[in-house]
């Protein structure tokens, strides 16, 4: 990919979509919960499925790589940023329902979908009331909390391939597992998710959501920028407990430290960088491995180029 590829792509796409939001050399730290991340060559924010389809098609024609970004809650973007196109889905936010089916666009916050379901007296998404990710991100990693997972209530999705082809994929075909889905391996982008919920008592739904929200706020370091839970749960163990028992709470590299409130989180306490995050992650993994002989695998996605 060269500057010529980018310029020819811009000329092509703006002739077809003159009102499309495109930013050049856009700092991605503005779009991540860690408040870290270098620039994107192109940061594009479509508002319609047709726009996504055309962008992907033109990117393929001009040989420009595309990286998808939701609301940046469980991702670390390296300080060198991302080459090519970063396709933001945050303008795709519509939520509506048909009987017990709740439709949510990829950029909608999964918290908002949970709240919408509650207002319609629909049960099944209570577990998501505190998950900070987007719908697309929640599908991508089969997000879950407090005993619930996306796969428990997902019916189907609408996705686009990297060639711009639009597909409808049933939940049963998504290979949803613990923090995994076939979206990851196929490099698809989720455009819409449809959840199949159950009628419920609104007051009961609210009580459960209030309880989960209180539990989350009392245990998690929501007062600092972070990428959420950093590590997957090792079989038979809890990552946070292993880190705590390794005396790593409060351990800091640069401006990033292991949270004193919840050892499974790493918080940006003083203008930390993505390099600080990566170094701290590596240190925690090595320490836990040495002490317990247990591998900690990342739940957070780490992408982009080193500075």
Automatic annotation (TrEMBL):
<protein>
    <recommendedName>
        <fullName>UDP-N-acetylenolpyruvoylglucosamine reductase</fullName>
        <ecNumber>1.3.1.98</ecNumber>
    </recommendedName>
</protein>
<comment type="pathway">
    <text>Cell wall biogenesis; peptidoglycan biosynthesis.</text>
</comment>
<dbReference type="InterPro" id="IPR016166">
    <property type="entry name" value="FAD-bd_PCMH"/>
</dbReference>
<keyword id="KW-0521">NADP</keyword>
<keyword id="KW-0285">Flavoprotein</keyword>
<dbReference type="InterPro" id="IPR006094">
    <property type="entry name" value="Oxid_FAD_bind_N"/>
</dbReference>
<dbReference type="GO" id="GO:0008762">
    <property type="term" value="F:UDP-N-acetylmuramate dehydrogenase activity"/>
</dbReference>
<dbReference type="GO" id="GO:0051301">
    <property type="term" value="P:cell division"/>
</dbReference>
<keyword id="KW-0274">FAD</keyword>
<dbReference type="InterPro" id="IPR016169">
    <property type="entry name" value="FAD-bd_PCMH_sub2"/>
</dbReference>
<feature type="active site" description="Proton donor">
    <location>
        <position position="229"/>
    </location>
</feature>
<dbReference type="InterPro" id="IPR011601">
    <property type="entry name" value="MurB_C"/>
</dbReference>
<keyword id="KW-0133">Cell shape</keyword>
<dbReference type="GO" id="GO:0071555">
    <property type="term" value="P:cell wall organization"/>
</dbReference>
<keyword id="KW-0573">Peptidoglycan synthesis</keyword>
<dbReference type="GO" id="GO:0005829">
    <property type="term" value="C:cytosol"/>
</dbReference>
<feature type="domain" description="FAD-binding PCMH-type">
    <location>
        <begin position="36"/>
        <end position="200"/>
    </location>
</feature>
<keyword id="KW-0560">Oxidoreductase</keyword>
<keyword id="KW-0131">Cell cycle</keyword>
<comment type="similarity">
    <text>Belongs to the MurB family.</text>
</comment>
<dbReference type="InterPro" id="IPR016167">
    <property type="entry name" value="FAD-bd_PCMH_sub1"/>
</dbReference>
<dbReference type="Pfam" id="PF02873">
    <property type="entry name" value="MurB_C"/>
</dbReference>
<dbReference type="InterPro" id="IPR036635">
    <property type="entry name" value="MurB_C_sf"/>
</dbReference>
<dbReference type="GO" id="GO:0071949">
    <property type="term" value="F:FAD binding"/>
</dbReference>
<feature type="active site">
    <location>
        <position position="299"/>
    </location>
</feature>
<feature type="active site">
    <location>
        <position position="179"/>
    </location>
</feature>
<keyword id="KW-0132">Cell division</keyword>
<dbReference type="InterPro" id="IPR036318">
    <property type="entry name" value="FAD-bd_PCMH-like_sf"/>
</dbReference>
<dbReference type="Pfam" id="PF01565">
    <property type="entry name" value="FAD_binding_4"/>
</dbReference>
<dbReference type="InterPro" id="IPR003170">
    <property type="entry name" value="MurB"/>
</dbReference>
<keyword id="KW-0963">Cytoplasm</keyword>
<keyword id="KW-0961">Cell wall biogenesis/degradation</keyword>
<comment type="function">
    <text>Cell wall formation.</text>
</comment>
<dbReference type="GO" id="GO:0009252">
    <property type="term" value="P:peptidoglycan biosynthetic process"/>
</dbReference>
<dbReference type="GO" id="GO:0008360">
    <property type="term" value="P:regulation of cell shape"/>
</dbReference>
